[in-house]
Amino acid sequence: MLKFQKDNIRVTGFGVSLGLKSFLDAAAFIDRVEKTGIPFAIITKGELHHQQDKIAALEEHLGGKKLKAFVLGDKTGDEYMKVVRASGIVPEEFLMIGDSVVSDINPVLKIGGQAIHLERPSADGVKWAFEKAQLPHGSKAVSSLTEAFMIIKEMTVQKAAPAKSAKRQRQPR
Question: How does residue 18 score in pLDDT terms, banded at 50, 70 and 90?
């Protein structure tokens, strides 16, 4: 899960897979996000001890950095709402970047959040039947976390521009 507040935009949701191994660009993505001053956290699901081991491995890969993480029993709208509330934001400020349309994208959109689908091949090149879902209309899809970061930067710039022009209009002449 990625959480950030920058120039009038506040977003949560970094859903990089913490499967058997993290995607190679996850560490670089986290590093880029940290350099912007954007706080973030990881959202994952599964048995707590397995997920804690995966998070610890990612932290070790990042040089011992401690990551904020949410381990969910299931990725449902209700579970994402718990993350939103715990993060002190509203659903409209929540952005999920995840590789599953079924469990990362659809539930977040249903609660009013935003989502970017990270299209990744599975380890064996075959998608589970469960994961063969259409990306909802209007959703964004990327093939790398680098592309996702570029979208986040665009969102930040687009959101900041109207706020700055509104401030200029309110100033007395």
Answer: very low
Q: Are strands 114-118 and 3-6 parallel, antiparallel or unpaired?
A: unpaired
Confidence category of residue 53, pLDDT binned at 50, 70, 90: confident
d(CA 97, CA 120) in angstroms, rounded, equals 12
Number of domains in the chain: 1
Q: What is the CATH number of the domain that holds 114?
A: 3.40.50.1000
Phi then psi for 118, rounded to 5 degrees? -95, 100
Which contacts of 25-30 are long-range, i.e. CB under 8 A and separated by 24 or more positions? 25/144, 25/145, 25/146, 26/58, 26/145, 27/58, 27/61, 27/62, 28/145, 28/146, 29/145, 29/146, 29/148, 29/149, 30/62, 30/65, 30/67
Which position has the token pair 């899960």? 1
Kindly give the pairing relationship between strand 114-118 and strand 95-98: parallel
Whole domain around residue 22: which residue ranges? 3-170
**What is the C-alpha R_g of the chain?**
17
